[in-house]
Design a protein that fits this description.
The complex is a heterodimer of chains A (127) and B (375). Chain A has a single domain, classed as Beta Barrel (OB fold (Dihydrolipoamide Acetyltransferase, E2P)), CATH 2.40.50.100. Chain A has four helices and nine strands. The longest helix of chain A has 11 residues. The radius of gyration of chain A is 13 Å and the shape is globular. With 375 residues, chain B is an alpha+beta fold. In chain B, a hairpin with an 8-residue loop joins β12 and β13. The chains are: A alpha+beta (127), B alpha+beta (375). Chains A and B meet through β4 of A and α2 of B.
């Protein structure tokens, strides 16, 4: 269920590197736990984010969760569609529901994140 | 304390509900999507299990006096077959509970919030001792199913219950179906649990019905209502639906620490001789220092309860705090209720502090959406 073309964090974000550009979103498991996503708060482009630190919020009818940066770098793109269609995070978390693109300072650091298999085991153990 | 289970508990689990503790009961929070459940009620019809609501009978020759002493609205003006919204106050004029009172041919049917059912019962019992009425708690015997939404009349009818031409806040007896039988209709006779109560009331802002019926008959009626096309809807959507209408929730927007005057509920205070009357009259005379207002977000963000609110302009100052807030699935913006200084006017621009982030909002008079239970 989790695509193998990208990496995962224990905080339920995914990170898909293409060179130094890393697209970031939240996982199917995360969106399912959140329920209906109704609001996504993302930083402006140019904002520097640090690995493991909160950089935004995703809010559902039930709760609010911080978004944690999977890598250190600078926000170079944000998904403006989520402003009017936050439900894309539920319907297509690995595609149209992406959140930001980070220009990573150390793209190789992505290799240290969880593989799809490892993430699958993590969520299987906690569900 | 162990949570009580609804007579429909197994139905909720079969439907995959996420359950939550509410007023001492283990009730469904949602069946998957709060937004989808909310839309079902606004666009078609939803079925709610409200078996957690308190259900008290007040009977005997002193029944009317008993209720008149206990609650604020004028029950002497309530005819048989009608219901009204009323308040139970503390001696200090705070709100113990907000509730509905239905008058049937056998007496008065009182439906408080689950968390306040024991407190309301105690108030009624004290009044009953002075008036000679009998207060009977039928919670162990009665379930409650609500069907709410524009298609509710068709669905309740298709489920085998004749809703007749019940108008808003009308009520009638609901005959208990024979075991295994599906047909219920016509006038019920006697007080619960010998008969149920059918009422056109609700907490969603849509046309809707509330059916109080013996617990053993509830699961089959629930099944027929879902088969007739109602979507199961749980407490999460009940909260977003009531908030879009600006209906206060006891425990959040109103409490023993708030008065009907500041909550804008003076319209439900028409009786006399009720508990807290002197304190209410004094509060009304003094006028409110703060008022419960609607807040509609004009910027981005979703206020929740306990967000500070401040005025805007050259010298922003604190003017109050939200008491509940949510994302409105109909408007697709944040909406909230909160107490604001009485000087704040409708139409004023304010800032809500949502977890440290300023969110712009406008002070409005609810309902936030264009809906009416009278339609």
């Amino acid at each position: 269920m989790n695509p193998s073309d990208r990496r995962y964090t224990e905080d339920h974000e995914w990170a898909k590197p293409e060179g130094a550009r890393v697209t970031v979103g939240i996982t199917h498991y995360a969106q399912d736990a959140l329920g209906d996503v109704v609001y996504v708060d993302l930083p402006a482009t140019g904002t520097r984010v640090e690995q493991g630190q909160p950089f935004g919020e995703v809010e559902s009818t039930k709760s609010v969760s911080d978004l944690y940066a999977p890598l250190t770098g600078t926000i170079v793109e944000r998904n403006e569609s989520l402003e009017s269609q936050p439900e894309l995070v539920n319907s297509d978390p690995y595609g149209e529901g992406w959140m930001v693109v980070i220009e990573a300072e150390d793209p190789a650091a992505a290799e240290a994140l969880l593989s799809a298999d490892a993430y699958e085991q993590l969520t299987a153990a906690s569900s | 304390m162990e949570l009580r289970r609804s007579p429909l508990d197994d139905r909720h689990r079969q439907l995959g509900a996420t359950m939550t503790g509410f007023g001492g009961w283990d009730m469904p929070l949602h069946y998957g999507s709060v937004v989808a459940e909310h839309r079902a009620v606004r666009e078609s019809a939803g079925a709610f299990d409200l078996s957690h609501l308190g259900t008290l009978l007040v009977t005997g020759s002193g029944a009317q006096d008993c209720v008149q002493r206990s609650f604020t609205n004028d029950v002497a003006a309530l005819p048989v077959g009608r219901a009204h919204y009323t308040l139970c106050l503390t001696d200090d004029g705070g709100i113990v509970d907000d509730l509905l009172v239905y008058r049937l041919d056998w007496g008065l049917f009182v439906v408080p919030n689950a968390a306040n059912a024991a407190a309301v019962r105690a108030v009624l019992e004290e009044s009953a001792a002075a008036t000679g009425a009998t207060v009977t708690d039928v919670k162990d015997d009665l379930a409650c199913i609500a069907v709410q939404g524009p298609a509710s009349a068709d669905i309740v009818t298709a489920a085998g219950v004749d809703v007749g031409d019940l108008g808003y806040l009308d009520c009638a007896g609901l005959p208990v179906p024979a075991p295994g039988g599906s047909a219920v209709g016509g006038a019920g006779t006697g007080a619960p649990p010998d008969a149920g109560v059918l009422a056109r009331s609700g907490y969603t802002g849509e046309r809707g019905y509330e059916l109080f019926l013996p617990v053993e008959t509830a699961p089959s009626l629930w099944d027929r209502i879902l088969q007739a096309g109602a979507e199961p809807v749980a407490l999460g959507a009940r909260d977003t639906l009531r908030l879009e209408m600006g209906y206060p929730l006891h425990g959040s927007d109103i409490s023993p620490a708030t008065s009907p005057v500041e909550a804008g509920l003076g319209w439900a205070v028409k009786g006399s001789g009720f508990r807290g009357e002197a304190a209410y009259a004094a509060a009304k005379e003094a006028g409110p220092a703060r008022r419960l207002r609607g807040l509609r977000v004009t910027g981005r963000g979703i206020p929740r309860a306990h967000c500070p609110v401040s005025s805007r302009g050259d010298a922003p100052a604190p003017v109050g705090e939200t008491t509940s807030g949510t994302f409105s699935p109909t408007l697709r913006v944040g909406v909230a209720l909160g107490y604001l200084d009485a000087a704040v006017q409708l139409g004023d621009a304010v800032t809500i502090d949502v977890r440290g982030k300023p969110v712009d909002a406008e002070v409005v008079r609810p309902p936030f959406v264009d809906a009416s239970p009278k339609d």
